[in-house]
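Researcher: If only I could read backbone structure tokens as easily as an amino acid sequence. Walk me, if you will, through where the backbone shape changes along the chain. I have put the entry right below:
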Amino acid sequence: MPWKLLLSLPLLQSIVSISVTKKRDSWRCLLPSGTTTYVHPILRTSHNSPPCSLQAISKKHENVSWLSVSPKLHVQNKFPRDVVVRSELTAAGSAGDGYLLPELKLESKVRGVCFYVVTAFSAIFLFMLMLVGHPSVLLFDRYRRMFHHFVAKVWAALTVAPFYKIEFEGLENLPPPDTPAVYVSNHQSFLDIYTLLTLGRSFKFISKTGIFLFPIIGWAMFLLGVIPLKRMDSRSQLDCLKRCMDLIKKGASVFFFPEGTRSKDGKLGTFKKGAFSVAAKTNAPVVPISLIGTGQIMPAGKEGIVNLGSVKVVIHKPIVGKDPDMLCKEARKTIASVLTQS
């Protein structure tokens, strides 16, 4: 360790008493006995150093004083260099951040601003088209609302096209457009809705009631027939499931995120059984869908950034059954089988 760095340590700066005796051009420096506590300047953790002493002998050579330090000084709990680097990286984000490094790039934040500008301008014009066609939709296609979903597909495609590409696999497994079904998928990002709308299927999403208050977007969701849900309200949950069953009986499809919320680390969470109870009681097929990549482009909790990347959508074969537990386990196993390979 260089002497300048050694002398700059808080341990040497904490010298309390120095006895200087100027005899025969020599002087001695003593550290107080006992244990000295100091705080590491990078890791911000306290460490104890053992008792130590420092002797210095001044040597005159051409009117210049040199300080020689005794090698008996030892400092325990030395940290490897890589530990310090990891600590500095960790300090830049919160614990559990699965997508930390991309966020540090300024261009990701710029793309995030551009993303919302594009989606806002697209929504304004397409919402007017949806509003004009709404009376006809109520008269001729009240439950499926195919026209509204076509407009939503155009809006989603225009929004995501400049920012990421979508690869579809298993499109042949999609039921016919006029066949009611229960679609289920993993949930990683705010971009999941945009990605799923590009499929062109007129399924009804379930959304929090507060989102319906958002200008343009919330109003368009109302015209689409999105099902409102009050979280932590058991009565609202029952009404939501009843409405889903009623829509399936009338020829419409519904879409569920069985995890209930977005995954922050990309891992598949526990599935709730509501979607599978609806499928079992209505004899509707369950269509599992795996979304790969949306969580890396826009991580949960970081909706202000858009990273570079691509998205893959895998549509699995429909599952039919009358046992909600079996449907739940089978659907989760099917979705997870693709996620573990990516």
Observations:
- The CA atoms of residues 44 and 123 lie 49 Å apart.
- The two ends are 46 Å apart (CA to CA).
